[in-house]
Each structure stands twice: as structure tokens, then as C-alpha cells.
Design a protein that fits this description.
The protein is α/β, with parallel strands linked by helices. It has three domains: 127 residues, Glutaredoxin (3-Layer(aba) Sandwich); 54 residues, no CATH class; 84 residues, Serine Threonine Protein Phosphatase 5, Tetratricopeptide repeat (Alpha Horseshoe), CATH 1.25.40.10. Helix content is 61%, strand content 9%. It has 18 helices and six strands. Strand 5 and strand 6 form a beta hairpin. Helix 7 runs antiparallel to helix 8 and helix 14 runs antiparallel to helix 15.
């Protein structure tokens, strides 16, 4: 069983250029050939060419999306395999028909790659990005019908008490945001997995708490954050609980979830940055000072992380500290000069300072 979900953000393929957005067909020099057009265009091409569709749902800001594109989809051998069987489609999940597609297919984050037939019926998906070799192996398995949702369901019919099959299915439904069905399988894991499978059982308990959250019951996850010793789970849980409360306009409860975990884990730059970025994204200006404090602690721990300097810069700018924002964004741009977004924001900040 393979898990691909990147840190929450969840929370997470190269972006189309302006010319590409105007041109339905955009091709890499080598690798997978993608359509930057509509879903219906891809369907028409797939029907005409008697191929399946591989849809890569991404966002402009998504770093794992860019890594996936560079490491996998621009690879010549991967391109040969995919292009012979699929019409490739790029969909920006935040533009055009992207939000509707996100909703229709229950896409939890970026990048999400879905294999489907010409009618749009899903074969299976890969959420997030891990090692290239394992990613490509999964693509090939799905083409052969191995490891898909349909495959696991057929196998479970023959072995209904197999906890490993229930776990695989729980993860499949989780990736589809069908948390009610996922919860049934996670519970079956707890009912059937042997006691010595402690990690599996704790993971399933955590996922059940996430499912309860989707059913408007935050208490199991709150209790998990307060009692579990698994730092990975409680960090992820804090992000989930914060999103839950922010959607309900309860920033106090949202940020308390992060504060609870901060008291229980050693200093961690990634977690501090995630908390700071959540404050910025939610536009909670009364918490900007706390966000800046968190980001400053994070860059002290990881001074060569351009992403953390970016967080610090944007929080400072939002809080009215233009000079401090310029300093932080200059640092981010110097660490990662290939990220055009840093240069764009730096120019904006410098323009503001000169005005």
C-alpha cells in the first residue's frame, strides 16, 4: 500500500505559461504531452485516439506539483509509456473549470493525478508525490488493473476480514474524500488487525478522528492531540482541526489547536512555518504578530529554507513592515532564484517602499 499525501496541505506539475493558457495544446520537449485546455477537449482527443485520460490537477503555488512535473512527467521514458496509452490533461484546480472538477472528483489537494476512461470514469488516482520509481510503478500497476479500488474491492469480497485490504480501501476512499466509507474500513482495521500492529492501529484511530471531524464532531481529534505521543499525527491533526475551525469563523479555536501541539513537540521549523502560513492565509490580522514570531523562530532553525523566508516576508508585509518584508523576500529569492514568484513579490514590495 502506498501513501502519497504531502503534508497537509495538504494541502500540494509545472504551471502553464500565459501562452499555454491560450493554446489548448502545450508539449514538453520530452516526457508526457499535456493538453492545457478543457476536460471536454481531452475527452474528444482520447476518444479519437482510443486512449485513456491522465489528468494532473495542480496549483500555481504548489511546490510538490513542480517537483512531480520535473522528476516524473518530463522524463522521456515516462513520456513514452504514458503518451502511448493516455491523453494528458493539466487542470489548474483554482482556475476555470478547476474548482468544479475538484468538487466532482473529491480532490483533497495538490498534486492529484487521476487515471480515467474517455467517459470520465475514474480508474484510480495518486495523491501527492513521493519517490519517482515508486510513483511510476504505481502508474504501471494501475494500467494493468493492479492495486486499484476495483481490484481491492474484488479481493475483499473473497477475504472480508483481511485488515490489510480494509486499510488499503480506507486509504483509497480517504483520497477520494469519501470519509464515511473510509471510516467503515478504518474501523474494520481496528476490529481485525492484531494487537502487535500498533502503528497501524494508531494510524487508523487517528484517521477515524479525522472522519469524525468531517461529521462535525471535533472532540475525538481534540482528545487525540492532547493524549497521543505520535508527533507526526498530532502535527497533522492540528492542521486539520485549524482548517475545520477557520471555515466556521472560529480563529481562536483554530490557533489553539496549534498552540496545544507546540507545547507537546520539540521545536520544528516545518510545523512553525505551517502555523505561521495558516495565520497569513486566513487573513487573521490580529494574529499577524504571532505569525511573524513563529516564522522568525522557524528561519532561525532552518535559515536556508526559502519557503519559510517567503512566509516571513508575506506576514511582515501584511502587517505593514515593508522594509522587513523586503529583507525577508530578498533572502528567499537569493536562496531560490528560480522561483519567479519571489521576484514578483519583491518588486511589489520595493515599489511600495519607493512610493
Amino acid at each position: 500500500m502506498k501513501r502519497w499525501l504531502f503534508p497537509a496541505l495538504i494541502l500540494l506539475s509545472a504551471c502553464a505559461t500565459e501562452d499555454q493558457s491560450k493554446n489548448a495544446m502545450a508539449k514538453h520537449d520530452a516526457g508526457v504531452k499535456f493538453v492545457y485546455g478543457s476536460f471536454s477537449e481531452a475527452q474528444q482527443m482520447a476518444t479519437a485516439e482510443e486512449k485513456m485520460i491522465i489528468m494532473d490537477v495542480y496549483a500555481d503555488w504548489c511546490v510538490p506539483c513542480k517537483k512531480l512535473d520535473k522528476a516524473v512527467f518530463k522524463d522521456a521514458a515516462v513520456g513514452d509509456f504514458v503518451n502511448a496509452r493516455f491523453v494528458g490533461l493539466k487542470i489548474d484546480g483554482e482556475k476555470g473549470e478547476g474548482p468544479d472538477i475538484m468538487k466532482k472528483y473529491g480532490i483533497p489537494g495538490y498534486p492529484t493525478v487521476i487515471l480515467m476512461d474517455t467517459e470520465g470514469n475514474e480508474i484510480d488516482r495518486i495523491v501527492g508525490f513521493g519517490e519517482k520509481e515508486a510513483y511510476v510503478e504505481t502508474l504501471k500497476d494501475y494500467v494493468s488493473g493492479k492495486g486499484t479500488l476495483a481490484d481491492y474491492l474484488a479481493r475483499l469480497a473473497e477475504k472480508p476480514d483481511d485488515w490489510e485490504l480494509h486499510l488499503a480501501l480506507a486509504e483509497k476512499y480517504d483520497d477520494r474524500q469519501d470519509l464515511l466509507t473510509a471510516a467503515k474500513h478504518y474501523q474494520a482495521v481496528l476490529d481485525n488487525a492484531p494487537a502487535e500492529e500498533q502503528e497501524v492501529r494508531e494510524s487508523s484511530s487517528f484517521q477515524l478522528a479525522i472522519c469524525d471531524l468531517a461529521r462535525e464532531n471535533p472532540q475525538p481529534l481534540t482528545t487525540f492531540l492532547e493524549t497521543s505521543d505520535n508527533q507526526g499525527f498530532i502535527k497533522r491533526g492540528a492542521g486539520s482541526l485549524a482548517r475545520y475551525y477557520l471555515k466556521r469563523d472560529k480563529p481562536g479555536e483554530a490557533f489553539q489547536a496549534y498552540e496545544t501541539v507546540l507545547k507537546r513537540v520539540p521545536p520544528d521549523a516545518g510545523f512553525l512555518n505551517a502555523y505561521a502560513w495558516r495565520i497569513f492565509q486566513s487573513k487573521q490580522d490580529s494574529h499577524y504578530a504571532r505569525g511573524i514570531e513563529l516564522a522568525e523562530k522557524a528561519v532561525a532553525l532552518e535559515p536556508e529554507s526559502d519557503a519559510i523566508w517567503d512566509t516571513l516576508a508575506q506576514l511582515r508585509y501584511a502587517n505593514g513592515d515593508v522594509k522587513g518584508a523586503i529583507e525577508a523576500m530578498s533572502k528567499a529569492a537569493s536562496i531560490n532564484p528560480e522561483e519567479s514568484g519571489y521576484q514578483k513579490l519583491l518588486a511589489e514590495y520595493q515599489g511600495k517602499a519607493a512610493a
